[in-house]
Amino acid sequence: MTAMELMKDPAYKSPELAKLLEERGPVPSLDATTDIHALRETLRQRKLELPAAGGATASDIDETDHSIPTRDGTNITVRIRRGSKSNEGPFNGVAVNVDYRLAPEIKFPILVYDCFDAVRWTAAHAGVHRGDLTKGFIVAGISAGANMACTASHLARDEKLQPPLTGVYLSIPSLLSQASVPDRFKEEYLAQE
């Protein structure tokens, strides 16, 4: 099957996804009756299982939490993950995950500012996370996090962040209205269906 055929087949499950769903069950659905706090806890627990799913053990990963200030004086948590000193891995990379404040409790644009404040903190605290930002400084996100990573990259550009970002990775962001998709790509633009 081509990638387009797979995208258009709602019944298709990759073998890897099928195995995960069999082992862990589906993620609870999201509707008007969803207990958002229980859903967040379920997703948090699943995230904790991810390193082991990739074959990593706890001794392979150094993980530390730091409380950092935001522009409104509130502290948020960033979790820093990197390979252990004995096993830094092939890329010797560092990931700084932002525990930004969430809607509906927090109003827009505070969550975006939380993310950018974490990017600024990361730029200013290389000694804390032991990263060499001259080798690469990438902001990334998935779904809503991708939207915020995109916005953070624009803020970094506009504020001339130093060291500058070297890349942006956005997975399934919602950045483009259906009306602005060029005709030659409309058949492939399925996000609104």
From TrEMBL:
<dbReference type="InterPro" id="IPR029058">
    <property type="entry name" value="AB_hydrolase_fold"/>
</dbReference>
<dbReference type="InterPro" id="IPR050300">
    <property type="entry name" value="GDXG_lipolytic_enzyme"/>
</dbReference>
<dbReference type="InterPro" id="IPR013094">
    <property type="entry name" value="AB_hydrolase_3"/>
</dbReference>
<feature type="domain" description="Alpha/beta hydrolase fold-3">
    <location>
        <begin position="92"/>
        <end position="179"/>
    </location>
</feature>
<dbReference type="GO" id="GO:0016787">
    <property type="term" value="F:hydrolase activity"/>
</dbReference>
<dbReference type="Pfam" id="PF07859">
    <property type="entry name" value="Abhydrolase_3"/>
</dbReference>
<protein>
    <submittedName>
        <fullName>Alpha/Beta hydrolase protein</fullName>
    </submittedName>
</protein>
<keyword id="KW-0378">Hydrolase</keyword>
